[in-house]
Specification:
Layout: E1 2-3, E2 6-10, E3 15-20, E4 25-32, E5 49-53, E6 73-76, E7 89-92, E8 101-103, E9 112-114, E10 132-134, E11 140-144, E12 149-153, E13 165-169, E14 176-181, E15 186-189
Parallel strand pairs: 8-9
Antiparallel strand pairs: 1-2, 2-3, 3-4, 4-5, 6-7, 7-8, 10-11, 11-12, 13-14, 14-15
């Protein structure tokens, strides 16, 4: 069907296309990959549903417009939990947390909020003066300014380092400053 400036069409591939009618641009395609579909390889398995932006467009924008008294967000579900309330990805669109992204949480409190264990198979980069904060009150902080590196316990407790062997070495030469060995019950200082 067509309306002013809008074209909706379907085809044998179970594809719904939404586009601009007067110029014939494909626009957005919504559908399911057929069992023998040869086109667009690499964007999913056969039988997968998809939302696809045609090559005539620069990109695909998904926008949730906030209402006068409504919460604004975008949520993605890849199989719901038992009661269907926790999305896999939640993007907050309004309020003081606008732009925050939550994974397995409805209330992302920081720019990226992950509920559950996290695995990184690559490096994690923090620029100078950005801190790795650990603990509910950010008690342990690890960071680097443009000159020095800091490991700081800024709470009320102690900073405890433990190991069966403890070595402090020069990073450039490997020369030891201190070596402790619990099996030998000794601590050696070097200068």
């Amino acid at each position: 069907s067509e309306g002013p400036g809008v074209r909706l069409s379907g085809n044998s591939s179970d594809l719904l296309t939404i586009g601009v009618a007067d110029v014939g641009i494909q626009g957005i395609s919504i559908g399911t990959r057929g069992n023998t579909e040869p086109s667009y390889p690499g964007y999913g398995k056969q039988g997968d549903g998809f939302l696809y932006s045609s090559q005539e467009q620069n990109g695909l924008n998904i926008i949730s417009q906030i209402g006068a008294s409504k919460e604004d967000y975008i949520r993605f579900y890849a199989g719901k939990d038992a009661d269907g309330t926790i999305p896999d990805i939640h993007i907050q669109g309004s309020g003081t947390t606008k732009g925050n992204v939550g994974i397995s949480t409805l209330n992302p409190r920081k720019r990226l909020h992950i509920s559950g264990d996290t695995l990184s198979e690559g490096d994690i980069y923090l620029p100078d003066n950005s801190k790795l904060r650990i603990g509910d009150s950010s008690d342990l902080q690890i960071y680097h300014d443009n000159l020095n590196t800091y490991i700081a316990e800024v709470g009320t407790g102690q900073l405890l380092l433990s190991g069966t062997e403890l070595h402090l070495e020069d990073a450039l030469t490997g020369k030891p400053f201190l070596r402790g060995n619990s099996a030998e019950s000794n601590v050696k200082l070097y200068w």
